[in-house]
């Protein structure tokens, strides 16, 4: 069967070509969606880990609020309609700057 010949009408060939193109577009779309989902989950996990590692409640709140914001961004939720979000305190902003 390695050297078999197949005869198709031009219409059948075009239909196969359209379906192959649709398959490729769908495959690329699914891969992009999966990459966004993985990045979203990694971001949430990092926020949770940083909140767990924080000693200060204000720092914990900062990382929790970051996670809440990412959830809202990911699902297209307007956070403003739910009221104010306590941002806590960013521990990175509190680190002293080293001078030489």
Give the topology, please.
Layout: H1 10-53, H2 57-75, H3 91-94
Helix pairs in contact: 1-2
Summarize it:
The chain is mainly alpha-helical. The protein has helices at 10-53, 57-75, 91-94. It has one domain (12-89).
Give me some keywords for this one.
single chain, mainly alpha, 3 helices, 100 residues
Radius of gyration: 25 Å
Count helical runs: 3
Proportion of strand residues? under 5%
Q: End-to-end span in angstroms?
A: 76 Å
| Oligomeric nature of the chains | single chain
Average predicted confidence as pLDDT: 87
Low-pLDDT stretches: none
Structural class: mainly alpha
Helix percentage: 55-70%
Overall strand count: 0
Main sheet makeup: none
Quickly count the domains: 1
Can you write the helix and strand succession as a string?
HHH
Structural overview:
- Helices cover 67% and strands 0% of the residues.
- The chain has 100 residues and is an all-alpha fold.
- The protein has one domain (12-89).
- Helix 1 (10-53) packs antiparallel against helix 2.
- The model has no long low-confidence stretch (mean pLDDT 87).
């Amino acid at each position: 069967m390695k050297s078999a010949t197949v005869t198709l009408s031009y219409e059948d060939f075009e239909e196969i070509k359209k379906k192959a193109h649709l398959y490729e577009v769908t495959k690329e779309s699914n891969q992009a969606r999966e990459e966004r989902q993985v990045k979203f989950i990694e971001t949430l996990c990092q926020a949770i880990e940083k909140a767990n590692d924080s000693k200060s409640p204000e720092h914990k709140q900062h990382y929790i609020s970051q996670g809440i914001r990412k959830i809202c961004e990911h699902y297209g939720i307007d956070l403003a309609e739910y009221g104010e979000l306590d941002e806590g305190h960013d521990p990175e902003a509190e680190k002293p700057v080293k001078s030489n």
